[in-house]
TrEMBL record:
The gene is ubiX. Dimethylallyl phosphate binds at Y153, R169. FMN binds at G11, A12, S13, T37, S88, M89, G90, T91, R123. Keywords: Flavoprotein, FMN, Prenyltransferase, Transferase. Its EC number is 2.5.1.129. Belongs to the UbiX/PAD1 family. Pfam families: Flavoprotein. This is Flavin prenyltransferase UbiX. Flavin prenyltransferase that catalyzes the synthesis of the prenylated FMN cofactor (prenyl-FMN) for 4-hydroxy-3-polyprenylbenzoic acid decarboxylase UbiD. The prenyltransferase is metal-independent and links a dimethylallyl moiety from dimethylallyl monophosphate (DMAP) to the flavin N5 and C6 atoms of FMN. The keyword Flavoprotein applies. It comes from Caldimicrobium thiodismutans. The keyword rRNA-binding does not apply.
Amino acid sequence: MAKKYLIGITGASGAIYALTLVKALKERGIPFEIIVTEAGKIVIEQELELSWKDLANYAERVYEEREIWAPPASGSASYEGLIIIPCSMGTLAGIASGQAKNLLLRAADVMLKERRSLVLVVRETPLNLIHLQNMLAVTQAGGVIFPAMPGFYHKPKSLEELVEGLVLRLLQFLNLSENSKAWKGLS
Ligand SMILES: Cc1cc2nc3c(=O)[nH]c(=O)nc-3n(C[C@H](O)[C@H](O)[C@H](O)COP(=O)(O)O)c2cc1C
């Protein structure tokens, strides 16, 4: 059975990271479902000038945050992991404090309790003490903080290439793809 991932999209800036990731997963034939928060829908539409449903169309299934009855709310649903991209400080805080009060927070809680993969592509600047403490708490609970901090060593020539660099690094981290933009050393 192919590994199926959950992709969470929140209201942090950087909806382009989510769009680039879902396209990359689709191209590679990796099955996934999406959970989008209400703020996530707003930021997708504001930053990408797309309907959130256009982005959601890449996924096998899409859930809204209120759908607490859906499969991602249960550890018995066999998702490989959850990648939240971009991840807001609000969602980070909800995970760090175990609130589980919407479908995305509950799905993240499930990943941690089931010892499955939880990766948060967090985006905020600057960071306050609460953000940093929440990142520490999630890391101690077994999650991975994977900041939306693209590298520049592959010399991106466009915004798309910059974002692709981060998404390839993420797929490489999850053992889902080779990273064609990996550092090859100085020639
Ligand atoms: C255009 C826009 C950009 C935002 N960027 C960020 C951001 O980069 N990081 C962040 O933590 N919150 C950001 N926010 C605020 C979140 O959307 C807000 O805290 C929201 O309640 C998060 O809810 P969610 O985690 O359920 O998606 C932004 C909001 C808007 C409208």
